[in-house]
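Archive entry: two folds, one per protein. Generate the first.
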Amino acid sequence: MTLYKQNFSIIISYLFILLIPSAVVRFGHLSASFFLITTIVDCLGAAWLLYLNQRTQANAIEQRPFPLKPIIIWGVCGIVLVLVIQILAGFIEQNILHITAKSLNTISLMTMMQQQPFLILATTIAAPIMEEITFRKAIFGGLASRLNRILAAIISSLLFAFLHQDGHLLIYTAIGLFLCWLYRKTGSIFTTIISHAGMNLIVTLLYLNR
C-alpha cells in the first residue's frame, strides 16, 4: 500500500469515527447514552488508528526517529511548552484580537465530564491519539513529502483548528504548528501524542478542580 493510500485510510477512518456516535444515537434512539457511546467509540477508534499507524511505512518526517528515551523526554517537555504556547496565543486573542476567552464547546464538555467522568478517557487519551495520527502523521506527514514543510504544517494546523469549532482559531493553530515542529524534530508521532495527552489532562484537571 502506498503512503497516499495509507494516509487516506487514516483520514477516512478518523472522519468515520467522528460520525459514528451521532449516527448510533439518532437511529438507535439512544440520546441519553450519547457521551458513553462517544467514549467507547473514541477509545476503539484510537486503538484502530494505532493499528493503522503501526502498519504504515515511514513517511518523510519519520526517516530518522529518536530513540525511546528522548521521545519520552521531548514528549514530557512538550507538555510544558504547548501549555505556554496556549497561554501566549490566548493572551493575543484576548488583548489584541479581542476574542473572549470563553469557549462554549469546552465549557459544555467540561460540565458533562463532571457528571460523567468516563469522558476523561475520550478527551485525554483517545482524542489526542486520533488527532495526532490524523493531523500530524497523515496530513502533515503526507503533505510534507509533496509540499514545503512549513506550508504543510500550516495546512495541517488550520484543519486541526477548524475541526474544534470553538472560535479560538489562533490558539489551536499555534498548538498545531508546535506539534508539527515537535513531530518533525523527533520523527515520532508518539512524542506529540504524549505532549497532546498531557496538555489535555492538565487542562481538564485544572478545570474540574476549580
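Generate the second and append.
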Amino acid sequence: MDENGTHAPLLVADSLLCALSAPGRATDIDEADDVYGWLVGSWRMQVLHYRDDLRAAPLQGEIQFGWVLEGRAVQDVWIMPPREHRTGTRSAALDMYGTTLRVWDPALRAWRVTYLNPATGQRDELIGRRIGDAIVQIGTHANGTPIRWNFTDIGRDSFRWTGVALAPDGVTWTLEAEFVAERVRG
C-alpha cells in the first residue's frame, strides 16, 4: 500500500505473477505425462490460416508459455499481431489476445484444456493427450461445436498447430486456424 492506503498496481501485478508462476513441473506429475512442459518459453508464429487462408500474406504473432499453479498447469498467451505491432486500429477478425490453461487431471490421466479470448468472447474446453508424435486436444467450442486442436511436426524448437471444427453436416472438419511456431527463447 502507498501512503494513501491504496495498492500500488505494479506491486499487485508482481505479487500475482509470483503466486501464479512456477519454476517447473510438480513432482506428482510423471515425466511421461508431461505433454506440455517442452513448450515453456517464448515463441514466434506465422499465421497461415485464421478463419481465412493467409498463406499469401502470413501474419505474425507470439506465444508465451509457462508453468503455473505450483507446476500442475501450463498456461500460455497467444497474441496476434505481436505486442510490438499492436495498435489501436486492428481488424477484429485478425486479432487474438487469449490464454490457455492446461491443467493435469490425474484421475483422467490427461490434461484439461481451457482457452479464453476476452476480446472476442471465445471459450473452448478440451482434453489433451499425446497420441504418437502429436499432441491431440479434443473438445468443444462454447456453442457445443466439436473441435480438435493438434500440435504436430513437433521439434525441439518448432511445431505446427492446427484447429479444426466439425461442420454442421456432422461429417466435414473445417480448418479454423493454422500456425507454424519457432522458439525465440526458452
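Annotation attached to the second fold: The first strand starts at residue 41 and ends at 50. The beta strands are 41-50, 59-68, 73-80, 96-105, 110-117, 122-131, 134-141, 146-155, 158-166, 173-185.
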